Amino acid sequence: MVRFQSEQLRTFLAVLESGTFDAAAHSLHVTASAVSQRIKAMEHVAGQVLLLRGTPITATQAGDVVHKLARQLRQLEDDAAAELGLTTGNHGSIAVVVNADSLATWFMDALALLPPDGNMSLELVREDEQHSVNSLRSGEVMAAVTATATPVQGCSSTPLGTMDYRAVASVSFMQKWFPNGFTAETFAAAPTVQFDRSDTLQDNFFAQVTGRRRSGTEHFIPDTIQFAEAVKLGLGWGLMPEAHCRDGLRSGHLVELIPGRLSRIPLFWQRWKVQSQGLDTLSAAVAQAAAQALG
Asked: Do residues 253 and 171 make contact, with C-beta atoms less than 8 angstroms apart?
């Protein structure tokens, strides 16, 4: 069985978080040589390279496994110290990956449900819901709002509900691109607003409707508010959460490309299977907020 010393795991974590052996040594108050020796000892035990000595230093695939273990150890130590009254109650920093639309619509309500004592430090990482589990696998985060139902190894998966999207565009856009009504041909050529290059919502919606591939211009706008603004200004059509397009549809400033056609994205909460008071508290808050906001 592969066993690492807690001191080695703390060093491994410090190297990945600081990016260099020298910076890790400074944060640990040891020499860079000591840091290097600890990492080499870990790689000897593992029988393979764990870190790529670049700038910054990054983990190999095997190193991702160790990274996750090191993060879990630190979280468990922080929780234990808090429960024993050896700290001011801080449960450490909990890193969570969340998709942009959840951040912009309901996830902040979950954070508002957390205890107001200020003892939980959070780090939110934004990533598309189709790709967020990669951050769990690498050990970068402890939990994720994701569209992936199958749990990552060492994690649990709990349904949160579905986020509903509507394909919308401005009135001027519809008049320009669909003057004679909606057709698959004009739909294929119409410009599209995409969040970024990992955004698959628009492509998936188009394929479901037409069975074809789009051929029109794409605009990439990686900001939820500005994405909505681009659609309102007529740069292209796009899928927007109901919460973001409801007022525009009611006022008539926005129009659905296919009235009543929803794109429903199931969301799940994946988290480490560790007994962590901080992670348990956050998970309960996320479940409560999602139950109120998602279908």
From this structure: yes
Q: Judge if pTM exceeds 0.85.
A: no
Q: Decide if 96 contacts 142 (C-beta within 8 A).
A: yes
* Alpha helix (H) residue ranges in 84-167: 100-105, 107-112, 133-138
Give helix 6-18 / helix 32-46 axis angle, nearest 10°: 110
CA-closest candidate to residue 125, choices 150, 113, 143, 152: 143
Predicted confidence (pLDDT) at residue 132 exceeds the cutoff of 90: no
Alpha carbons 166 and 265: distance in angstroms, whole number: 11
> Which among 197, 53, 67, 196 is positioned nearest to 135, based on CA atoms?
67
Contact between 289 and 114 (Cβ < 8 Å): no
- Rounded Cα distance, 99 and 135, in Å: 12
Beta pairing partners, 271: 143, 156
pLDDT of 87 > 90? The answer is no
Nearest to 160 by CA among 13, 274, 17, 285: 285
Residue 67 pairs in a beta bridge with none
Round to the nearest angstrom and report the end-to-end CA distance of the chain: 45
The alpha carbon torsion through 202, 204, 209, 211 (nearest 10 deg) reads 130
Question: Are the beta carbons of 42 and 66 closer than 8 angstroms?
Answer: yes
C-alpha span between 189 and 257 (Å, rounded): 14
List, for residues 182-214, the tens digit of each pLDDT value: 888 889 999 999 999 888 899 999 999 988 888
Q: How confident is the model at residue 92 (pLDDT cuts 50, 70, 90)?
A: low
Domains and CATH numbers, the chain: 1-90 (1.10.10.10), 164-264 (3.40.190.10)
Beta strands 192-194 and 218-220 are parallel
